[in-house]
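[09:14] KT: can someone run the structure on this one? pasting the chain below
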Amino acid sequence: MLHNWNDNQPIYLQLRERIVTQILEGKLKEGEAIPSVRQVATDYRINHLTVAKAYQELVTEGFLEKRRGLGMFVLKDAQKKLLKEERDRFMAEEFPELLRRIRRLGIEKEEIIRMIQQTAEVSK
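[09:31] RB: done, structure tokens below
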């Protein structure tokens, strides 16, 4: 399994984000074991210490737990906590910039509403 890595960010952080995305999308479920460090290192062709660092970040943040002799597991409420964290970050960091850009481009509220409705129809 080959994956493209962004040179502008450490691989362990990119791997952390991929795991977070899998939890948010329900691909990794609460209480479920995640692939071993060795397996991920082999699949992604990266150093096992890089994988271990990404996993440790998620343990420290309270989204994964290590069960001795069993591996790493997604904690209860991890998806809910991650969703709140992602929403809060979006509203604090990305949304204000998006609004500034909308204003700079002179896009009217009605046009935004129409675009949201069209996008919602397409994604049904």
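[09:33] KT: thanks! Residues 78-105 form the longest helix (28 residues).
[09:34] RB: yep, looked fine to me
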